Structures are given as structure tokens and as C-alpha cells.
Amino acid sequence: MKFTIACLFAVGLIFNAVGCDTKSETGKKVAAKPDEHDHDHEGEGVHVVHGPKGGHVFDFAGDSGKKLEFTYSKNNNVIKIFVMDKDSKETPVAAPSMSVRYKMGATPVTFELAAVEAVDGKTSQFMLDSEELSVAIFQGVDVVVKDGDQELVASIPAHERHEH
After folding, report:
1. How many angstroms separate the CA atoms of 51 and 66, rounded?
2. What contacts 75, CB < 8 A, 6 or more positions away?
3. What is the pTM of this model?
4. What is the rounded distance in angstroms from the CA atom of residue 125 to the CA atom of residue 115?
């Protein structure tokens, strides 16, 4: 476990030293979007949109009209992911958990985020307290959530962690 965390940390340092691009770890291109807040991201390579919770917003692939916002705390390792509609309003999905896939070399790692505040088996919030995920999510991951029979997939490209 300590070796995995050390490897994730080392990969993070390398990405920060070399820079980022606009591809996820699966090689899918992700459209860079203009930033709409009060600090500069020049030179980062990926310009993310920030959502109503102050997190980073990415669209789910396809025509679902849904997107996600992920937040993190500088004080701990809690990652929260919110499912939203096209107007950035939380929209519940019928899923007990959400998967975040990270590929370090040839070894894929999957993190399971638990549903939070579910009502009638639906929620728009998922959370995990994980030091490994708090590093990996900035290295490029794919997020997968099943909403009934529909599978929603979003790619979060590698980008720099920064405070807001």
C-alpha cells in the first residue's frame, strides 16, 4: 500500500514538472474549456470549468446531458463527485456507487465511491476518503456510474491540483 501511494506521488511530481495535455489516461481527447474564475491557469494545458460547489466540472460522454463536478479538500483526502444536469443542478441517479478508474503503468486501479444521502435508491453525490484517489484524480482518470441500465462515463484529464 505504501509503495502504491509512493508511486502515485512520484507520478504526480513528474506530471507537474513536465506539464499536462488534454487526453485522459484512456487516450480519449477531452475538450479544454475556458476557465471562469479569478485565478490564472496559464501553462497548465487543461483549463477546467468550476462548478457551483467550487470543484472541477467535466461532461459525461454521449448525449446524456449530464456532467460531474468533483471536489477535494486541501485538509484531508476526501473526494466528492456530484452528478449534475446541463444546468449544473444536482440530478439523482439510481446507483449505489461510482467507479473511478486509474491506470498506473499496466496496472489498473479502481476506486469505488459510496453513494451519499440516497433517497429511494437515488443520489447525486458520491464520496471516498482515500489518499491514493486524492493523488490519482489529478493524473487522469475515467469516472463510471450506472444510472439504471445507462452507463455514464467521463474522462478527467491530467491537470494540476490547485487551491481556490
Report:
1. 13
2. none
3. 0.70
4. 6
